[in-house]
Design brief:
heterodimer, A: 352 residues, alpha/beta, 2 domains, 7-stranded mixed beta sheet, two-stranded antiparallel sheet, 11 strands, 38% helix, B: 315 residues, 2-enoyl-CoA Hydratase, Chain A, domain 1, 8-stranded mixed beta sheet, 14 helices, 8 strands
């Protein structure tokens, strides 16, 4: 560092980039250990405190770029759900809360669905946006899960749901409760198509979300320290009038009680999920880019619409982009490196 | 009979009638006429009150301690009832009772939450708030019904699944989720009646059904009005407002297309004529049987799934 980099570079940078590189808050406190975290360092560390390893909540954009690793992905649009079916009003109108959340997050509802590749497999990710009304599940979110499941079945892809949600959205009343069976029907379609359904439980996964699609996965992966449970801690304390155990309802507690398969830090999630998908989907893909049939095995039990999944060899030849859904659409996604830069940039700018 | 706050005028009339009855033991004709006049008035008053109950009042009626509970239904409408216990994993949960028996002569699996009708029973049944064992037993019984191809009838009456340390430890979420999944998997008809309180996840766990009915003054909601008020209004004092905003009455749910039918209650609510209410529920279940039986296993499951897939989809 010298005067040149200190004083000149930012100016030059402003010529080549229209992005503001300086976030509003350069420093923040780790909510777990109170350690000071420098913004850029935190971003480079995937939103994990380098003092204590606490996993801070991250944006959906960051979530997707971490989960898909270096590989490109495309957004799957989710059809809109009926807005404010009950004309709900508490201190504020639900419709106003919705508009605010939409303005804040730039998305229609608390879920984002994307198709890409993890490991050597097609994967659809349905990620909750906690910034959108606490990631609560109403009809719009239900629609997102249904869309994600349908896409997974069509593309012969694994489905990975990533809840970050306080539960059902009260403002949609009984219709939000009905999203519990609805989301379970959706993930059932994926399971019955012989495709893996994984859940990555992040902070928080509670209430109606934990008691529906989030707990019926083939494999449950939890993020370290995430709060996962059915009833709220305060409700339980008021009911039993006792202090709760210190690590109550944490990812680690659920692991100890047999509710999740593993607790995986953010940095290893892409690799771990990729490995699991490769193992579970071996029969679908076949080894060395062949289909199960030419491997002398029976083809998957269910009709796959005549589509042949892309095997590792084909990908090695640079065909990363042959995701069926991308066919006939605009050019191939960015090469891995460029995409990574884009992802990093997005991450830095804190936008989605 | 315990009276609710808004039933005060009726209570006063009834008290007067009782008094007159006491003094008229001699058989005075004039007094008898007076009693009958007052009784008509009381009935009219009751009808007036009950035809325009507010959502918050309905919450009170739905939770009325003398309202018929699961056991009352079993005694009155299920023959050959054979209760079955345990989840084969951890324990037995008396909050959610189930077994096999006959309704209108048809063999079926019957289950539901029992709130209990006196202090001892309430404690024994944990106020109708089931733990994971209860839901895992429900799941087991549904699979039993599926294996032997007999319908499932569920009677829903719970404030919700029990919020406790043990329940969380043993996977309350997973138990409810798995129960919902089983409801969606079985290839026999499932009929569900909300007889009192349909409390959120604890209710939907056994109410994911082909036909869902509600008693006229029962409620069914994603959260209790008290809970909703304390979160959104930041004070439990707004429970009445929350009850209205949540649209939790049978009439609202019918309009929203979430339930199939409303079962009319006797004058002044099910707690005033328990047996009559129970019989009306039986009649509705018979109607449900007539609509769904006999069934094609694959079709019934498929249509149940389609039904839930559509809830909340833009038309």
């Amino acid at each position: 560092m010298n005067w040149l980099t200190n004083f000149i570079r930012p100016k030059i940078r402003s010529f080549v980039s229209d992005q503001k590189e300086i976030p509003d808050a350069l420093w923040q406190k780790c909510p777990a250990c109170d350690g000071m975290l420098f913004h850029r360092e935190l971003t480079e560390n995937l939103g994990v405190c380098h003092h204590c390893g606490h996993h801070l909540r991250i944006s959906v954009a960051d979530r997707l770029s971490i989960l898909f690793g270096e590989s490109p992905f495309q957004d799957i649009s989710v059809p809109p759900a009926p807005a404010d079916p009950l004309r709900f009003r508490d201190k504020k109108k639900y419709s106003d809360r919705l508009s605010e959340a939409r303005a804040k997050t730039g998305r229609d509802d608390a879920i984002r669905v994307a198709l890409g590749r993890i490991g050597d497999q097609n994967a659809v990710v349905a990620a909750f946006d906690f910034d959108f009304m606490g990631g609560s599940m109403g009809a719009g979110v239900g629609e997102g899960i249904v869309k994600a499941a349908e896409t997974a079945v069509r593309e012969r892809a694994a489905l990975i749901c990533i809840p970050s949600s306080g539960g059902a959205r009260m403002q949609e009343g009984i219709l939000s409760l009905m999203q519990m069976p609805r989301s379970v029907v959706a993930v059932r379609m994926v399971k019955e198509a012989g495709l893996p359904y994984l859940v990555l439980l992040t902070d928080p996964t509670t209430g109606g979300v934990s008691a529906s699609f989030a707990m019926v996965g083939d494999i449950h992966i939890a993020e370290p320290g995430a709060t996962i449970g059915f009833a709220g801690k305060r409700v339980i304390e008021e009911t039993i009038r006792e202090q709760l155990p210190p690590n109550f309802q944490t990812a680690e507690y659920l692991l100890a009680h047999g509710m999740v398969d593993m607790v995986v830090p953010r940095a290893s999630q892409n690799e771990t999920i990729g490995r699991i998908l490769n193992l579970l989907m071996e029969r679908q893909t076949g080894k060395n880019g062949t289909t199960g049939r030419s491997n002398g095995r029976k083809s998957p039990p269910r009709d796959n619409g005549g589509k042949v999944a892309v095997g590792p060899l084909a990908r090695a030849a640079g065909n990363v982009a042959r995701l069926p859904a991308l066919r006939g659409k605009t050019p191939l996604p960015l090469p891995a490196a460029a995409n990574q830069t884009a992802a990093t940039r997005r991450r830095r700018s804190g936008k989605d | 009979m315990s009276f609710l706050e808004f039933e005060k005028p009726v209570q006063e009339l009834e008290a007067k009638i009782a008094e007159l009855r006491k003094v008229s033991s001699t058989g005075d004709v004039n007094v008898a006429a007076e009693i009958s006049r007052m009784q008509t008035k009381a009935d009219r008053l009751l009808k007036q009150i009950y035809t325009k109950l507010s959502p918050a009042q309905k919450v009170l009626v739905a939770r009325h301690p003398e309202r018929p509970h699961f056991q009352d239904y079993i005694q009155a409408i299920v023959t050959d009832f054979t209760p079955l216990a345990g989840d084969r994993r951890f324990g037995e949960d008396a909050a959610l009772i189930g077994g096999i028996g006959r309704i209108a002569g048809r063999a079926c699996v019957v289950m539901g939450q029992e709130k209990g009708s006196d202090t001892e029973m309430r404690l024994r049944h944990n106020f109708g708030m089931a733990r994971p064992e209860g839901y895992r037993k429900a799941l087991r019984l549904m699979e039993l019904a599926d294996r032997f191809q007999i319908p499932v009838v569920t009677l829903v009456d719970t404030a919700g699944a029990y919020p406790g340390v043990g329940a969380e430890e043993r996977g309350q979420s997973e138990a409810i989720a798995a129960c919902i999944e089983t409801c969606l998997n079985v290839s026999v008809p499932i009929l569900s009646v909300v007889i009192g309180e349909g409390g959120s996840g604890g209710a939907i766990a056994i109410a994911t059904a082909d036909r869902v009915y509600m008693l006229e003054h029962s409620i069914y909601s994603v959260i209790s009005p008290e809970g909703c008020a304390s979160i959104l209004w930041r004070s439990g004092a707004y429970a009445a407002e929350a009850a209205a905003a949540l649209r939790l009455t049978a009439q609202d749910l019918k309009k929203l297309g979430v339930i199939d039918d409303i079962i009319e209650e006797p004058l002044g609510g099910a707690h005033r004529a328990s047996l009559e209410a129970v019989e009306r529920v039986q009649a509705q279940i018979e109607k449900g049987f007539a609509e769904t039986c006999p069934w094609d296993p694959r079709t019934i499951r498929h249509s149940r799934r389609e039904k839930y897939l559509k809830i909340g989809r833009a038309a």
